Amino acid sequence: MAISTLARRKATTFLSSRFLYSTSKYSFSLTRGYASGSDENDVVVIGGGPGGYVAAIKAAQLGLKTTCIEKRGTLGGTCLNVGCIPSKALLHSSHMFHEAQHSFANHGVKFSSVEVDLPAMMAQKDKAVSNLTRGIEGLFKKNKVNYVKGYGKLLSPSEVSVDTIDGDNTIVKGKNIIIATGSDVKSLPGITIDEKRIVSSTGALALTEIPKKLVVIGAGYIGLEMGSVWGRLGSEVTVVEFAADIVPTMDGEVRKQFQCALEKQKMKFMLKTKVVSVDTAGDGVKLTLEPASGGDQTILEADVVLVSAGRVPFTSGLGLDKIGVETDKAGRILVNKRFASNVPGVYAIGDVIPGPMLAHKAEEDGVACVEFIAGKEGHVDYDMVPGVVYTHPEVASVGKTEEQVKSLGVDYRVGKFPFLANSRAKAIDDAEGLVKILAEKETDKILGVHIMSPNAGELIHEAVLALQYGASSEDIARTCHAHPTMSEALKEAAMATYDKPIHM
């Protein structure tokens, strides 16, 4: 059952040498700061999203006098207010409606009719958001984090000017300033988002009517999730994507199965397609499209268009240029392995620095950054950050895809197990998907895990832990898993990687 000595040695070396995206020319000595008794803070965090509020709480827990500045007026950032949380609320509600329409009768639960109460669905979503934002404010009070509501911009490496939401202005001083302002919707040339007929993810979370025809521009995580929500509620959904594939970062084999699953749900895809223009002159919206490589143009009509072409770091208007903070062409702040910018005392985390634009990655950044400021050692390994698409079935992954492993020239094995052979999945009549494990051939060390299934976002964390500690596929295969559970599919895929599965 024990992992091989070679694999452990590799894992130990990897864990001890991990570092963040950085620019090697930046290297600063850090001193631990404590409250001086004046109005100066040890840590000032600009931004109250998942990275910012977590950093603020952790700083306070480490004994540092801390202030968090948030322009929205409610904590939680894009994720909690108009992103991760409300989208998951609608994904769950729409899934319940879809199940009531299509699956309940198979389980002996029958209705004479079922209908959508959209205002009630939106109210449930809004209640979840408000409860959670108030919860973070409670955590600030518990941990004695000072909370300033307003737009903060840097005056110097130790001063932040805040235009408060009540119209005043105040100066917040800090020995260390952490920029955690997150990201914003990426716009497309010639397309104006009005949050009514042409919407971002924010507007897609607040539609007052179910559109008959919804066009989604972009086949990434957010576009597929929001398309899934409105598709379940009755919209005819067409996804337009410039690239040749949906979710290009996903393992190729899993991606193909995922697209098939979405097509079964009547989601249409127009890949290798470019949006040339959008016309809102009439009652609806007309999109002019052409092949990505050029060719004849076509017209696609919609009631609502969702622009979901990615996100960009929110770093403009913060005064970075005024104090000389260096950024790259994309506007991301360049930091060293301690999250320090080229300006001593100024740090950055989350979506404003290179790396995955994910809430949980930002949280890890925030904790590690504050630990460095406090004189401790922090770390984040971006290779171990899981990604999840919260459709149904969900798709979750961690580590390398098969394409990445091949490009590295590593000899590897693949183990797969379908949920059609999993007893729990069959019992609940929800067995679409698979588990796929990639392991190094010589050492059996796991390189990547990809899961498509109901609740894949929960199942993936066993794999994350395995990769984090350099486990082999045999380690998972020889670990007892409760029966009947969906997680047994991961065990069987591990068995298929190093030997043979039992139930296939």
Automatic annotation (TrEMBL):
The keyword Nucleotide-binding applies. It comes from Nicotiana attenuata. It holds the Pfam family Pyr_redox_dim. Residues 42-366 form the FAD/NAD(P)-binding domain. Disulfide bonds join C79-C84. Belongs to the class-I pyridine nucleotide-disulfide oxidoreductase family. This is Dihydrolipoyl dehydrogenase. GO terms for molecular function: dihydrolipoyl dehydrogenase (NADH) activity; flavin adenine dinucleotide binding. Binds 1 FAD per subunit. One of its GO terms (cellular component) is oxoglutarate dehydrogenase complex. NAD(+) binds at G218, A219, G220, Y221, I222, G223, L224, E225, E241, G310. The keyword Disulfide bond applies. SUPFAM superfamilies: FAD/NAD(P)-binding domain, FAD/NAD-linked reductases, dimerisation (C-terminal) domain. The gene is LPD1.
